[in-house]
Amino acid sequence: MINWLKKYWVELIVFGGIFGILLNDLAPNFTYMNKAADSIGYVYSATYLYPSFHTSAPIFLLLGHVFMWIPIGTNAWRFGLLSVVATMGMCLFVYLVIKTKLNRWYALLGTLIVGMSALVISQSIIIETYPLVVMLATGAFYFAIKKKWYIASIFLGAGLAVHLLAVFVFGIFLISFKDYRKNWKALLITLSFGLFYLYIPITSKNAPSMWLPQSGSFVASVIKDIFTTIVGLVGTIAIWNVPKRILDAFGIVGVSIGVLTIVPVLAYFWHKKFYKDVLFWLIVIPIGLFISELDMNTFDYCMLAIPFLAIVAMLGMNKLIIQYGKNWKVFAYAMLACIVGFGVFNAYYFDIGKNLDPNMSTTEFYYTELPKIPNGSIYMPLWGWEWEAAFMYNKQYDAHLIIVNEDMLVNVAYQKQIENEGVKLIPSNNKNQSIAAKQMAQSIISLNTVWTTVTTSPATFGAEVVPADNNVNYAPLPNEQIIAKMTANPPWEWKPYSPYSTMTTAILESSWQYVVMSNYSLFFIADWAGGFFFIYWLMLKYIEKENKKKKAKGETEKW
Q1: Among 168, 223, 329, 496, who pairs with 248 as Cys (CB 3.0-4.6 Å)?
Q2: Spatial separation of the C-alpha atoms in residues 26 and 355, rounded to whole Å
């Protein structure tokens, strides 16, 4: 044991330091910072084994249920501990990959890049699926380069049962690794994890309509929800916002890998067919998804790129030292100083309980504000996450708040559902769904005794429960002016947000209303460009065919 400690004392310091930072910064209770707006919903679903929204992340919820058996801390802290453990696993796999290809010193530097990354820390101290899916993707890559395809297939399959982001990883592996593609047993193991999605029909039987109205097949509703979410987000960002989003992506990734790390990354991909490198696609696709999506808050997709950027950086650094001499070691030390400098700042900045959310606004809302609503009253919250909190409040305290979600009011089945609970409303036939939902929300406020919320501290998502008192201005949907702005064609957007404001989601409440929806979307441009290049490709093929005919006939003139 003493010899082992002497040999690996540096590893113990690095891994112990990262673990200490994450444990210190871990949210002590419910928070919405760092995009933890899903946290109450996940705790609710994992506690009572209900399905959650979209794909329901079955393995994530089952593991969360196990972690909440830990006999210390709050439920939110226990579930969040899963994110900490997953990130430590990711750091271990990054270390092993780099050590396999280079040596332990490069491996330790790469581990520091990941463990002290702003984006990684921000997502590893809350209840979120990304640390787990990224750990599984990194583990799959490690076992792939070791040619252990059965273990790699287990990691890939588990990832598919956590988050749809793993679908892209699975696709990249299929294309890039011939041995995996031809190993039908390994493929079968991966695909068998789809059985975990039986969790949805099995557990939805007694679940309340937290995410979707219980009309028809719940499974069909989930599939439809997934499809409409993907279609509604991927590629739908207006071209006017693309320049700004690209700068936002570079800012988030830049501060997350320590800025100077970009140099060896570029060196690695220089002078080689980078588009044939599996690491290139594991980096580019998650960043590209963030750039292309309508929702600014998909910045967390970029977390998947961070461990592979760290691996590439070390490979690039080694290449620079070999090709250009030991002087590049000085740059390596400067890069280490930059990483540690950013890391120390990140460790301080993302301490949720002390710095980002010292009053724990979400916890205060759940335990202090929701009890103000009389039992049996109609509650129309301002934001979706407050809606989730109300559902868990009903279950935990055996309360009966009649919860109305404005976003779902355009659904006829949902209208009937809340009417059966005693809610009076006037249906709207307006073709603009946002306006129709607002009009129905206003009718509910005017015809019923309704409680709602008002924001008290936007940066920390603080809210206060108040009676609406028939004031239709409390209807919390965008007004016609904001809707008109969202569907307009504004000037090009260039100025990016602060990366730290984005990662803490402190700008969420103010930024969403400025999202621009336009027919001239990124998908629209890609569609036309794809069509053009397809026609161009067909023309080239036709010319090649005609030239072959001419050559066969002995003709010299070419098309």
Answers
A1: 496
A2: 12
